[in-house]
Design brief:
The protein is an alpha/beta fold. The protein has helices at residues 28-37, 65-71, 82-94, 106-117, 131-139, 167-177, 201-214, 225-235, 244-253, 279-292, 303-316, 319-338, 356-359, 369-381, 390-393, 421-436; strands at 52-53, 99-103, 123-126, 143-146, 185-188, 218-221, 257-261, 272-276, 351-355, 383-384, 386-388, 409-413, 444-448, 459-462. The protein is built from 16 helices and 14 strands. Strands 2-8-7-6-5 form a five-stranded mixed β-sheet, sandwiched between helices. A three-stranded antiparallel β-sheet has the order 9-12-11. The mean pLDDT is 96. The structure holds pyridoxal-5'-phosphate. Pyridoxal-5'-phosphate is lined by residues 58, 105-107, 130, 132-133, 188, 192, 221, 223, 261, 263, 272.
């Protein structure tokens, strides 16, 4: 299927702008004060001090006029809201799972799933960790085991499906601990920490076959699975003529359930869900959700939030939406790559990841090069990004040492439908200027370290 979005071969945003939010440009002195007060942690900046905000694509999308209209259709009944049923219909139609439990966001669903499925001492294999996902697995007494292919840890590998599961690593784990101690495999679409890298359908089919044989459920982190479907269509034989909707269903049909942070693919500012096909699991989750989130027909959300999510789902599977989304990310990535800036390859769907190891080879990993680079980019141009390296990886619970992951990255994440190509030109110019004076950038010392998910609230000082 040849998808024509405009009469020309360049892609364009499949929308026009109806309302704008004004941006504030700060002075260098203002930014110096702001980052000092934030302890050199971009999570602790006030958003009013940020010019272009590439911290995250989570909950930062611009909703459509239809979604805003949907908010007005909120049925704020405590129980049995109409909007829950609209959302349930949409999940059944697009993802195909039978049972739905709404949650306030992704980690709410991760919490429920981990508590229900993991027994203390279990092992949970996954295609690379995600921060909140792994923490919930650990808090439930499980041990996360990374079974992603080795190429995912190499920022220069051009493997088209760096999100693939290494079937040998998985089998080695199952042989060692026994399938009874593997409550599920945690499979993430478009693996965030690897640079937004997809798995292939071929890999998922092998995984499905293996897991059926060993009676291990596959639980999908569906947060960016529509973006994953886009790469399958682009790169995998046999999918060129299939729609995103069809590919998405094919993925979900090979899995047993999912957790969802709807704040990404699904174009809402808040929301998530847990979904599955197994009735017993559903009943357990339905009972658990009332303890931690809210009644099972709202799970911590307002009725209007569920309506916006159902409408966002329809917009998220639109071909022209995803083409513009991924086209925009590639536009920024190509500019940086052409200028020689080290980034993770291939370019993923939601962000460009600067390779801080190569950008700042003179900064030791325990002096947090990616954290330092994120702080410096803010100082340079008021652009906010996120560290995804040694700070995010945290400490090994056994040794207490920093994990020093292979990937030491700064993530420039693009909110959906928010910034223009001109904003991206400014971002590219700022990063390129910084790269030219990279030797003047030094590391950081951590002065405050919270117990959980330290990257959110840790504080630093320049060395
Ligand atoms: C892959 C992935 N899984 C789970 C989550 C957690 O979702 P939330 O932030 O909605 O709790 C995120 C979001 O940051 C994510 O990127």
């Amino acid at each position: 299927m040849e998808i024509q979005h405009t009469p020309h071969h360049s892609w364009a945003e499949p929308y026009k702008i109806k309302m704008v939010e004004l941006l504030r440009v700060t002075t260098r002195e203002e930014r110096e004060q702001a980052i000092r007060e934030a302890g050199y942690n971009t999570f602790l900046l006030r958003s009013r001090d940020v010019y272009i905000d590439l911290l995250t694509d989570s909950g930062t999308s611009a909703m459509s006029d239809r979604q805003w209209a949907g908010l007005m259709m909120g049925d704020e009944a405590y129980a049995g809201s109409d909007n829950f049923y609209h959302l349930q219909d949409a999940v059944r139609e697009y993802y195909g799972y039978k049972y739905l439990i709404p949650t306030h966001q992704g980690r709410g669903a991760e919490h429920l799933m981990s508590r229900i499925m993991i027994k203390p001492g279990d092992f949970v294999p996954g295609n690379m960790y995600f921060t909140t996902t792994r923490l919930h697995q650990e808090l439930a007494g499980g041990n996360f085991v990374d079974v992603i292919i080795d190429q995912a840890h190499d920022p220069d590998s051009r493997h088209p499906f760096k999100g693939n599961v290494d079937m040998e690593k998985l089998d080695r784990l199952v042989q060692k601990v026994g399938a009874d101690h593997v409550p599920y495999i945690s499979l993430e679409g478009n693996v965030n920490m690897a640079g937004g890298q997809p798995f292939s359908m071929k890999n998922l089919r092998e995984l499905h076959e293996y897991c059926r044989k060993h009676d291990i459920p596959i639980m999908l982190d569906a947060t960016r699975t529509i973006e994953n479907a886009w790469f399958i269509r682009e790169r995998e034989e046999g999918y060129r003529d299939k729609s995103l909707r069809v590919i998405l269903r094919e993925i979900c049909d090979l899995t047993d359930g999912c957790t969802m942070s709807a704040k990404k693919d699904l174009l809402v500012n808040i929301g998530g869900f847990f979904a599955c096909n197994d009735k017993e699991l559903f009943i357990k989750a339905q009972n658990m959700v009332v303890v931690y989130e809210g009644l099972h027909t709202y799970g911590g959300l307002a009725g209007r939030d569920m309506e916006a999510m159902a409408i966002g789902m329809r917009e998220a599977v639109m071909e022209e939406h995803q083409s513009a989304r991924i086209g925009q990310v590639r536009y920024l990535g190509n500019k940086l790559r052409d200028a020689g800036v080290p980034i993770v390859n291939p370019i993923g769907s939601h962000a460009i990841f600067l390779n801080a190891r190569e950008f700042l080879p003179h900064v030791d990993q325990d002096d947090y090069p990616a954290q330092a680079l994120a702080a410096e980019l803010y100082l340079e141009a008021g652009i906010r990004t996120m560290e995804r390296g040694n700070v995010s990886a945290g400490r090994d619970p056994e040794t207490g040492q920093n994990r020093r992951p292979a990937l030491e990255l700064v993530r420039l994440t693009l909110p959906r439908r928010v910034y223009t190509q001109a904003h991206l030109d400014v971002v590219a110019e700022s990063v390129i200027d910084l790269y030219a004076r990279r030797e003047s950038i030094h590391g950081l010392k951590m002065t405050y370290e919270p117990e959980y998910l330290r990257f959110f609230q840790a504080r630093f000082e320049p060395l």
